[in-house]
């Protein structure tokens, strides 16, 4: 009896430890990377380095927030990188009409891609991965048709947005934090957020319960497209150039990694905004660490792939329990 009792207690302790790692492993990963960089990376603790890291995280986080909504609804949005490219093309083309007009057109362009994604998924029944893959290809092509080559952005307000700060905190970081708080509020405190999670948990049950499944799905992808467009605008402001050929390349990989590592399951029904924030920080910090130690960019992609596999495995183990 004693052996059985000890065995049961050991199993409970192991399950509890595994659950803690699944829920807070991303935060542990960030802490470990920070400690490693403090120990081996020169000038890592400088204010300029932290500013640079935060500015680089901001676009990834903003895109990942929209991706988290899509994955929470048991979908995915592979078009986010192309939306960033489309938004930079639209921004450059309409900047002559004033910055605010150009910003509005860029964000509306991203939202329009979201409407197309949502309509294919909600009304025609196309699988999210297929629908958004089609828009990924079409969006990048349209962006390059509108703006065939790199173009410098000469606008003082845009330059200020990309490099300015408030009390030492870059505007890009402030915008990313504000959007993270907004998405967290929407998911936790609004009817739309509760409907999104219910649809992600079981779409047939949501339909039987009378939830507006089609409307919610379209809104999910509109939000994802609009957030990706905002990220494209901010990246353009930081670079002071529009480059639809390279802007947003592989951003969908980084966003999915941040969301999955952050604890949002690919099976839907749950959105962890705080974990997504930590996941975005982890991905960019991992990338920066490899670059600072002169490892080739291909190693960054391999590292991200390994992180995704580990996160999906952890989620699979959680599902078994």
TrEMBL record:
Pfam families associated with the record: BPD_transp_2 (PF02653)
Location in the cell reads: Cell membrane
Q: Name one GO molecular function term.
A: transmembrane transporter activity
Which InterPro entries does this entry report, sorted A to Z? ABC_transp_permease
Membrane topology field: Multi-pass membrane protein
Q: Which keywords are on file for this protein?
A: Cell membrane, Membrane, Transmembrane, Transmembrane helix
TM ranges are 24-45, 57-73, 93-113, 120-147, 167-187, 216-235, 297-315
Q: Which residues form the signal peptide?
A: none
GO cellular component: a single term = plasma membrane
The protein's name in its UniProt record: ATPase
